[in-house]
Amino acid sequence: MDKLVSLAKRRGFVFQSSEVYGGLGSVWDYGPLGVALKRNIKNRWWQALVQGRDDIEGLDAAILMHPKVWEASGHVGGFSDPMVDCRACKARFRADKLGDARCPQKPSKVPGEHAACDLTEPRQFNLMFKTFMGPMEETASVVYLRPETAQGIYVNFLNVLNASRQRIPFGIAQIGKAFRNEITPGNFIFRTREFEQMEMQFFVKPGSDDEWFERWRDIRMAWHVDLGLTPAKLRWHQHAPGELAHYAKAAYDIEYEFPFGWQEIEGIHNRTDFDLSRHQEHSGKKLEYFEQATNERFLPFIIETSAGADRVMLTVMADAYREEIVDGETRVVMGFQPAIAPIKAAVLPLVKKDGMPEIARELFHDVRRRVPAFYDDAGAIGRRYRRQDEVGTPWCITIDGDTITQRSVTIRHRDSMAQDRVALDQVTAWLGERVGE
Ligand code: GAP
Fold it and tell me: Which of 157, 206, 242, 406 has the highest count of CB atoms within 10 angstroms of its CB?
């Protein structure tokens, strides 16, 4: 993880937020390559769920919502973690995760194990960020930063249904920011206080929910495998009855084996009609669905698939990172799938003379009209290849002496380091075919 975090900063994937002021706890900024990688992941999710299916519609609901939404959803009353403080060192821990925590006193131990430790009784701590709407900072104007995107979908269920003329079963998908005042965030972008979710809520007829739940489990696991994640590092975790969220009839997490252990990257939940019935009750508005074929009215059950975009990005980075010894030197490679690699191709003139930079520049302009590309003429060619390996660029295109005489280039493959000769005027099409763009 240390190597990954340092590479992420050095190469412009992820920076600490407000770093010049010493940073802000567990809030991160995405640099040029990070924003490209995360966007590629989100686009792929959108393509699989919205663009590629005719039974799911997209939505982009606001972050700020009516405060009653969070009363109805159960977040005001119950979205809390038990917290303990240490009166001696002033550190704060999650009471239910004390065994995994480390006391800041030296030598590092589990909180409570030092003679000096003085822990409070656990208290419930609500994870929602509060702010005020309008000029008055008073109770009546409290609004929350949403802790999940899902509620924006539930309260828009009938709007989307009527506007799209979908029929049940159908889904609504959205990607957006969520905020949680986590007590113990950490592990880089794994658990942060501001993050992005990719959530899809699938509305089904009660009775067909178990079948749809299984279908969505299969679809979502296949999506992660398709992203290029190592299948042996993915597994299911079924929530035991005592572990289930208040809204869930059944829940499975997709877990990945990170350097810090197996952890959840996505949750699939059968939320029954809990959310719609709560919003119906609290708003006083009917949220039922009318099924023409059977003349029945009912509240649909909801199957939810909920993944964190930042967390999937960390998973992709952790899975892609590898070190190899080549000619006695360590080569660091980010083995991203070409479709999600932030840069698809680098154009490199072998030397800065003999007309090579001119041809390289021209090719670079052609290539980047089709795929994200990078131009680099600084330093020895071997070092330039290594720089691209480290950010996961699948192909390096070198303009050399033969380009001048034979109008062909060398294309070097990141993973095998094998080199092909390709005609200069075929390079863009060659890349397009491989990236699928
Ligand atoms: N709507 C259901 C829901 O929000 P969740 O299990 O609390 O369920 C779903 O969150 C996903 O959101 C998680 O699997 C994770 O990928 C991501 N996530 C949750 N909290 C996060 C945090 N503090 N930082 C980064 N990602 C988070």
Answer: 157
Which pLDDT value is given to residue 60? 98
* Predicted pLDDT of residue 144: 97
Nearest CA to ligand 1 atom 21: 191
- Between β-strands 301-308 and 194-204, what pairing exists: parallel, antiparallel or unpaired? antiparallel
- Under the phi-then-psi rule, with left for phi > 0, alpha for psi from -120 to 50, and beta for the rest, what region is 436? left
DSSP labels for 395-412? EEEEE-HHHHHHSEEEEE
pTM for this predicted structure: 0.94
CA of 172 to the centre of ligand 1 (A): 18
For the chain, list residues with pLDDT below 50: none
Q: Is 6 exposed, middle or buried (0-12, 13-18, 19+ CB in 10 A)?
A: exposed
Q: Say what the pLDDT of residue 437 is.
A: 56
Residues with CB under 6 A from ligand 1: 148, 150, 180, 182, 191-192, 195, 197, 199, 264-267, 304, 306-308, 310-311
Distance 108 CA to ligand 1 centre (A): 29
pLDDT at 123: 87
pLDDT for residue 246: 84
